[in-house]
Amino acid sequence: MIEFDNATRTFARKVAVDGLTLSVPPGELFALLGPNGAGKTTTIKMLTGLLRPTSGAVKVCGIDLTADVRRATHALGYVPEEPFLYDKLSGREFLEFAAEMRGLERATVKERIQRENGYFELGDFLDDLTETYSHGMKQRIVFASAMLHDPPVLVIDEPMVGLDPRSVRMVKDRLRERAAAGTIIFMSTHTLAIAEEIAHRIGIMDHGRLHFLGTVAQLQRELASSHTRLEPLFLELTSGNNGRPHKETERRLQVEN
Description:
Rossmann fold; 2 domains; 10 helices; 10 strands; 41% helix
């Protein structure tokens, strides 16, 4: 379970995330959406232990990230928006390094690399230095490294940036498979079509607050809109909000908590 309990993060006088309360259960593929400056990146950084909440709490698998960040982050796999690799390592060496950092036994590492190679089709470039990789190739290696240790929670920031259509299909299929096996997928993205296609629920942030939480069909009903696609619904909500969550979302969150 991922739990944000009234999590707030401020920078001087700026409130980046304001009282976020949200739970994501095992097996859910959740997409966090919002315009630039909405608070998505700060939310991701709190979830991955890169930032502490100013107040409130963030928990992963029941572990408070502020109290025990090392144990909490061990339960995470993280794919950042900008993939970082060591240029003078091959893809295979990078994956071996990532596996060792996660404490995988040597006998397991080879099998896990072969497994992810099968999913992401890494074989053609796995033994080349990563400095020769395209952005899309780097992204595929980073996805593989995040899944080597079978984390119960996978956090992904802009998963499809720089990927060609074939790679996008690989990633979508892998995320669906992981969610079906019980992994929590927490994804932040500007690609509304991807969120609409694969997410079980979406959350829409703006001005640091959660303005909607639910399915696309629920968003349509709550806005009483004639639109059925996520893009026009998203634009309708974020262009017309007044700094408060949608009244039905606010009511539902109060009931759930």
